[in-house]
């Protein structure tokens, strides 16, 4: 298993504001206020910290509210990927695997191929493509359904399969909370959960990159020296 964790964040400062911008300006003020409130709740010591002034740039030609939505969604998404990767790395490092064969010819999962990156390298290309295409479907569905996070939607919210008319057959479970455990939670509890998710995602990004860095360059993460084995391959290359 590999984690491909990177966010491409680029833009240029907005130079012109249309004369009909009071509504957009109000949305931008609300977005920046939400961003600062989340920053203070997630880290009461550091609070709001944006030395590169990314929140004041224009990403994909969007206004400030859209840019903030993009940045917030990108952090949440990469945090979720990192949490899955971090847990997966630990699980695979301990030889835990599915008990059934990986392929129809009876080939088992490559749990004995070595470290998690080496286990990924040992997967057949067909298996890798299945994973990549499934993730691509989830990404496409997220971007094309519901209110987009750059156009007033909630950053990090994944649309429900059951609400979409683009899937030709019923889907019994949604990707987020498939069993509806959060339906009866209060808004305060949900807000605390969202803040915890952001912080856990940040730590997971540090954690998974620490594992991979130490594997590629021994001694680069002193706390992991001698714990994770070296890896001669390229952890960011899918094939």
Globular, elongated, flat, extended or rod-shaped: what is the shape?
globular
Strand content range: under 5%
Biggest beta-sheet profile: 2 strands, antiparallel
Widest sheet: strand ordering: 1-2
Q: In sequence order, what are the helices and strands, one letter per element? A: EHEHHHH
As a percent range, the share of helical residues equals 40-55%
Rg on CA atoms, Å: 21 Å
Distance between the termini: 12 Å
Number of strands: 2
Class by alpha and beta content: mainly alpha
Average pLDDT, all residues = 88
Note the total helix count: 5
Unreliable residue stretches: 1-21
Q: Describe it for me?
A:
It is globular, with a radius of gyration of 21 Å. It has about 240 residues and is an all-alpha fold. The chain contains five helices and two strands, in the order E-H-E-H-H-H-H. Helix 1 (about 20-40) packs parallel to helix 2 and helix 2 crosses helix 5. The chain has helices spanning about 20-40, 65-95, 115-120, 125-145, 185-215, and strands at about 10-15, 55-60. A two-stranded antiparallel ribbon has the order 1-2. The longest helix has 30 residues, at about 65-95. The termini are close together.
């Amino acid at each position: 298993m590999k984690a491909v964790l990177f966010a491409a964040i680029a833009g240029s400062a907005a130079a012109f504001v249309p004369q009909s911008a009071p509504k957009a300006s109000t949305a931008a003020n609300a977005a920046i206020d939400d961003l600062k409130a989340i920053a203070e709740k997630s880290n009461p010591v550091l609070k709001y910290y944006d030395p590169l002034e990314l929140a004041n740039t224009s990403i994909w030609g969007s206004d400030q509210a859209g840019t903030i939505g993009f940045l917030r969604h990108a952090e949440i998404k990469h945090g979720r990927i990192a949490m899955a990767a971090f847990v997966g790395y630990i699980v695979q490092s301990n030889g835990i695997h599915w008990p059934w064969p990986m392929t129809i010819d009876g080939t088992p999962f490559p749990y004995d191929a070595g470290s998690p990156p080496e286990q990924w390298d040992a997967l057949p290309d067909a298996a890798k493509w299945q994973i990549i295409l499934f993730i691509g479907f989830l990404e496409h569905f997220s971007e094309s359904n519901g209110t987009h996070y750059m156009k007033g939607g909630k950053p990090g919210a994944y649309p429900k399969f059951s609400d979409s008319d683009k899937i030709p057959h019923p889907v019994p479970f949604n990707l987020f909370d498939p069993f509806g455990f959060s339906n009866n939670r209060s808004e305060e509890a949900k807000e605390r959960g969202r803040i915890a998710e952001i912080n856990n995602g940040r730590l997971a990004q540090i954690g998974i990159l620490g594992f991979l860095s130490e594997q590629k360059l021994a001694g680069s993460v002193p706390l992991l020296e001698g714990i994770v084995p070296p890896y001669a391959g390229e952890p960011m290359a899918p094939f």
